[in-house]
Amino acid sequence: MFCSFLFLQFFCGCANSDEKKEPAPTSENDVDAARNFINSVLKSNFKEAKNFVVQDSLNYEYLDATERSFKDQLTDEDRRQYKEASINIHSINPVNDTVSFISYSNSYKKKNERLKVVKRNDQWLVDLKYTFSPEAKDSLP
């Protein structure tokens, strides 16, 4: 039994030392945060996209809903087109040092969208509550 315990300890120790955790990607500014988020979503990389949103339950719910929509409602061809799409930034509207609105589209659907990007703890993040809430859209510039 003691040998089994030592083997288990050795095995776990080796497994952990081989894995190198890479730091979560960060964004240098508001536009970089929007671009990183949009690119992750277009590529259906929702795990990475989660790194670029404000970390709260509502933002995570909105991101999960978007992921389900991509998986359940889009055809394989749509997903391929999104993955190949480029991002077109139309305007950058800073409200202050910690809030900006980014107007963009992608080369596949060409529909103008707007993201709210906020600076929290020296990190720029997308706030999806603005994107999904009609009340918030009406009250913000």
Note down, in words, how this protein is organized.
The protein has helices at 2-18, 30-42, 46-49, 57-73, 76-84, 128-132, 134-139, and strands at residues 87-96, 99-106, 113-120, 123-127. A hairpin with a 2-residue loop joins strand 3 (113-120) and strand 4 (123-127). The model is unreliable at 1-19 (pLDDT under 50). By secondary structure, the protein is an alpha+beta fold. It contains seven helices and four strands. The chain has a single domain (26-134), classed as Nuclear Transport Factor 2, Chain: A, CATH 3.10.450.50.
Quick take:
The protein is of the alpha+beta class and 141 residues long. The chain has seven helices and four strands. The protein has one domain (26-134): Nuclear Transport Factor 2, Chain: A.
Q: Strand count, sense and closure of the main sheet?
A: 4 strands, antiparallel
Low-confidence stretches: 1-19
CATH architecture descriptor name: Roll
Strand order of the largest sheet: 1-2-3-4
Write the layout of secondary structure elements.
Elements lengths: L1 H17 L11 H13 L3 H4 L7 H17 L2 H9 L2 E10 L2 E8 L6 E8 L2 E5 H5 L1 H6 L2
Antiparallel strand pairs: 1-2, 2-3, 3-4
